[in-house]
Amino acid sequence: MTHMAPVILEQPPLLAVRPPETVSMRTRDGLRLDADLYRPDGVGPWPVLLLRLTCGRRTAMTSHYAHPRWYAARGYVVVVQDVRGRGTSEGRFRPFEAEREDGADAVAWAASLPGSNGTVGMYGSGYAGMAQLLAMAERPDALRAVVPALAGWDVFTDWATEGGAFRLADAMGWALHCAAESARRLEDGAAYRALLEAIRSLPLDDEIPSRPRVLRDYARHCHYDDWLTTPGPGGSWDELSPRNALSGGIGEVSVLQIGGWYDPRLTGTLAAHDALSAGGDGTVRLLVGPWDRHGVAVHAGLDRLTPSDVPSFDAVQLGWFERFLKGEMNGAERGGPIRLFDALERRWRDLPVLPPAAHPLHLSSDGLATRRNGALSGDAPDEAFLDVLVHDPRDPVPTVGGHAAPDAGPHDRAAADARPDVAVYDTAPLTAPLTLSGQAALEIWVEADAPSFDVSAVLSAVLPDGRVLPLSQGHARVEPGGAQRPMPVALRALCATLPAGSALRLSLAGSCFPAYPVNPGTGAEPGETRLVDAQPITLLIHGGGARPSRLLLPARV
Predict the structure, then answer these.
(1) One-character DSSP codes across 158-205
(2) Deepest in the core among 39, 114, 459, 517, taking most CB within 10 A?
(3) 482 vs 536: CA distance, rounded Å
(4) 1: Cβ–Cβ under 8 A, 6 or more apart, which residues?
(5) What is the pTM assigned to this prediction?
(6) What is the pLDDT of residues 108-159, one digit of tens each?
C-alpha cells in the first residue's frame, strides 16, 4: 500500500445507497447538462464527488474506477455528468473548449445538491482529468480536492503531437470514438456503423493513412481535421490547455495527480506537477505507476503485479478524499512530493524532485550499428564515426511496446532491434544493479537526404535472459529547414533498476508506425500525404570527434 492509499484502522460500516436519480443543471450560457446522482441512504450531509465524462455517464468510467455506488456507500454524494454535447447533455461537443466554465458551473451546482455539505472533489482519467484541471482555473469556492489521472497538461503537445509529429494511432482512435458518439446522438446509423468498424480496426492502410476515408466522410462528427491541420504550438491550442489556463495558480485545492509509465500523456503530467507545486497553497502530490492509458497496471514480463504492489485508482483517491474532504488524519499526504514505481524492481520510490538528465553516455560505433555493433560508454570516442540507416516507407519500423502503441506496455522489442533499419547501441553488461530514476534526453548529430525526416529513439533494458524491455522513448520530426546540430530528442522520464548482468540499449530508427505517421520525406503535411507519395530516406548518424552524439541519464552508469 502506498502512502497515498487510505490508512484507516477501523473501516466504518458501509452505508445503503439510494437508487440513482437523473438531475440536470444549466450552464451560464443556458445549456442543460444531465447527470446521474448517487446518494447514501443515511444521515448527512456528505462531501460531493464529481465525475464529468465524454464517454456517457451511464458507463460511469467503470473501465478505470469502481462504480459510483462504491463511493456513495463510503459516505459521498456522487455526481456523474455528461459534458456538453455528450450523452444526453445539450450543446455541441468541441474538445476542451467549454470545460473551464462548464466545470466551474458544475462544481457550484453540485455543492448545492440535497445531501451535500458544500464541499466538492473531482476525479476522472484522460479527458475527465483535463476537465478537472480546467475547472480549477475558475477557482470555484466549493472545490477542495482533485485527482486527475493520465491527463496531461497541454493539448497540443500531450494530445495532438509529440516531438513535432502527429500522434497518429492515439489521436485517430480517440477521434473515431468521439465521432461515433456524435453519430449516435444524431441517430446517423450508417455513420455509426462505419465508425465502430474503424474503431475495432484502425484504417491505417487507407490511401491517405493520416486522414482515412471514414474520417473524411464523417468529418462533421468530430474534431480530427482541426487537430490535423491547425498549426501549433500556441494560438488556439493555448485556449484549450490547462497549462495556459492555470498560469495564475490554483489556490487552496489539494491535487493528487496519477501518471502512468505507459500513458502517452506522462510528460505533460510531470510538467503539470512542477507548475501546480509552484502555484498553489494546497497539498500537491504526484504518483506514477505502471499504468497504461486505460488505467491497466502492466508488468514487465516478470511476476504478475498484485494489489499489494500497485493499489487501484479507487484505493489511492479514496484516501485523498477522506483526508481533504472529510478531514481524516489518515496520512494520505505523507512521504515525498513524488512517488514513482520502479518498473523492474517493483517497489515505490519517494523523491523530492525529479532528477534531471545530467550524466552522459556517448554513442560509438564501427559503422555497423545497424548490425548491432554500436556501443554506449562514459567516454567520448576520439575517432569520428558514421552509421548509415535507410528508412523504407513500404516497411516502416513498427511501434513495439512503450507508451505510444495501441498495445502499450513493456513488450519485448528484441525482434524490432534485429531489423537492418534500426541502429542499436549497447552498454557493457552491468557489474552491479543500476537505478535510473528521473529525466532522460538524447543529443544526436543526424542528417538526411530528404528535407524532412523522423528520428525515433527507444531506451531499453537488455535483461540477462535476452528480453529487451522499453523503459523510455522519444520521437522527433525535422521539418524542412528545421534541423539542429546536435538535434535534441526529448525522452520520457523513467524509473527502473536494472539487475547486474543486464545492459542499457539505445535504438534509433526513421519511423515508429503507427504511433506517428510515416514521414514521406517531402515536408508535406500528414493529412495531404498519400501512401504512394512516401520515399526512402537515408539517415546519417554521426558521433565522436567534433560531432559527439550522446544519451543523457539521471544517474551515472
Answers:
(1) IIIEETTEE-HHHHHHHHHHHHHHHHHHTT-HHHHHHHHHHHHS--TT
(2) 517
(3) 20
(4) 7, 308, 311, 315
(5) 0.95
(6) 999 999 999 999 999 999 999 999 999 999 999 999 999 999 999 999 999 9
